[in-house]
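[Amino acid chain]
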Amino acid sequence: MAVDYEAGLLRLADSYRRIPAGEPVRLAKQTSNLFRLRAKPAAPGLDVSGLSGVFDVDPQARTAEVGGMCTYEDLVAATLPHGLSPLVVPQLKTITLGGAVTGLGVESASFRNGLPHESVLELDIFTPTGEIVTARPGPAGPGGIAQGEHSDLYFGFPNSYGTLGYATRLKIELEQVARYVAVRSVRFSNLDELSGAIVAICAERAWDREAVDYVDGVVFSPEEAYLVLGRQTEEPGPTSDYTGRKIFYQSIRHGAEGRVERDRLAIHDYLWRWDTDWFWCSRAFGAQHPVVRRLWPRRWRRSSVYWKLVALDRRFHIADRLQRRAGRLPLERVVQDVEVPVDRLAPFVEWFLGETGIAPVWLCPIVLREPHAGADPAQPWTLYPLESGRTWVNIGFWSAVPQSPGDPSRTNRLVERAVAEFSGHKSLYSESFYTPEEFEKLYGGQRYRDLKARYDPEGRFLTLYQKTVRNK
């Protein structure tokens, strides 16, 4: 590990020295999973090309050490031969470990394993001063404050989006996994009943006397919603393949209330079940049409390819031109992930479907893990105020609506206000419209300013508000 990692750090440091003072500092990456437009910097970015890949997998300790730019696709490929997996594997293959920690991530194991950053044991961070520091929680010291090395940065790094530094190395926990996942699709015609089922599953890790290791869901309408329950198993049997003509989100639908549809996937295919069609967004490119799907090479049925098509659309405004040519208004992209308490899930989803008409939407329950010693027990992670001891539900919606004349961001602003009214929180990977005062209350406030003062005293990196709202 030392030779490759140290060489990567040297390239990173050299590229940082080449960025003139006053120029925004960004990664020199060709790919991204962000949906907010960003100003193109005049200066070159940070060279992180030597910080990808898996450095080490320890099957006995159930840990892995990886570069900050290591993708989950590469990590899963290295851990599954040992019967191990990261505790939470975000749904898209090209999401990086560093990206999932600094920008958050969620998946169907989050009801028992929390969020990706909670399984990080320690991480090296390249700070705005050009130093590499190792951040870890450590035990609680006097006054209950964590005494780990740079523990303030450890707890403040998640949701900082590269404004406090960039992860160069992470050591994470792994868990044992079985070879297969037995899947049940349970239909609900009432969102309150679905919410009650989520509460029961999170508490008991079972449903209808059968264990549940994974849970997420899809809402097609208030009268047609599903929880998709996964159980790890070594039992032999046939498995489904959703990288071919079959489409996963369509497979979970069935007609009868209370009826259960069963399926089985290899663990590898379960972890990447959403990537093949980017949940359901591949339909925007015609990839779900039977004829197109037969012609679309299987290796190109993946989120990274769809991202390239999105980039082309952004560059040449293809969708907007087609809208105008057809005499229709340009589109407002409504691409967000939000979290609301489970007791507010049903009214929020009903409001959202009625207001926007966007469907389907994705659901994923979250229960944070027990806080580290020395963490704030009510809000252990400085910049993302999910409270411990509560069940939250991530709601993901990724679509577009016609723009309102004179207000091209109307729907996104409505959603942003509604999230606050329903006691929720919003991820920052997409567009945001908060005022500085609103943002201050929601994302760290004085605690963030203290971290900035310590780790970025000269203001070399953008602030979180500049980066996620002002899109600088």
The chain is about 30% helix and 20% strand.
